Hints:
The protein is mostly helical and 315 residues long. The protein has two domains: 56-87 and 104-194, no CATH class; 211-315. Helices cover 73% and strands 0% of the residues. It has 14 helices and no strands. The longest helix has 33 residues, at 36-68. The N and C termini lie far apart (88 Å). Residues 307-315 have low confidence and may be disordered.
Amino acid sequence: MNPLTHASLRLCAGIFFAAPFVNSALAQQDAPPLDAMQVLGELDQAEARQAASARARRMKLQGTLQQGAAGGSAAANLYEDAIRATRFAGKDKQAAEFAEWKKANGDLLRSPRMQDAIRLHLRHLALGLQQSSGETAAQMPALFLQHARDLAEYLTDKPTTPDPREASDLLQRPAREGIVVRWLAMGDLLPKDEEWEAAAGNVDGILEKNVRAPWRKEKDPKIMAAWDLQIGLLDKRAQSAALTIESDNLQKIARPRLVFARANDKILLGQTNSGQKDILLIIREYPQHPDWPQWVARLRTLLGGAGNEPREQAP
Length: 315
């Protein structure tokens, strides 16, 4: 045998037989056990301090947001502060550049539409903070429903001139990505997007995620008020649509879908006959609708009929 090979085998054998002794030595060098009761008590205290800190932080942020949500100059002032902190912080000649921006945007900051958009944006954020606390869960759907009513009023009140781009951005983009959230560093305190409508101006999303979803779990009949608001808003949009094709899409495609969804919530609430009649009505009225096979299958199931799978729509 090669002397090198023989030496290698002896070395490996030595390591193999020595390993248990090394592990045993390491085990003997371990630290003494923790005092479980003491450490668990310390963790409880740390969690309590962290919860209290988060609660205080949330309350402070809510106060700031609610002050701006009063509207008018208070909303404009808070928006100014957010602009200064996020766009001009750390720049050379910071004060001069911000003063120049403020002068150039004076009309924007005094615009009632802009101030209303800021107000609605801030209220949406304040409601998000309140929801994430979990302390007023039962009240949240009603609060969001009122917010959606105010938002619907804003959206249907068509101004003589187009809305400022900044106002549209505040309402249409995800609120957690907005300038106010970045300024106040509050994104971690907002609810998850699947539990909270991310865009402050999305009435349909607010009504579904923040109003109907929690009320649906409780089978609360007030859910119908949310449907009435959404369908009423769609009707107003259809009436004011600039193009006939847009109006037709809202009335003949979007509206029947809302009626079908509302009918299913009626059935959930025990209003089975009323829900079935609503589905039958749209089946009769909109035979060319792309969802027509789904409606027929649903009504067949409700009536206990055979052939519950969607059928091909006749040409």
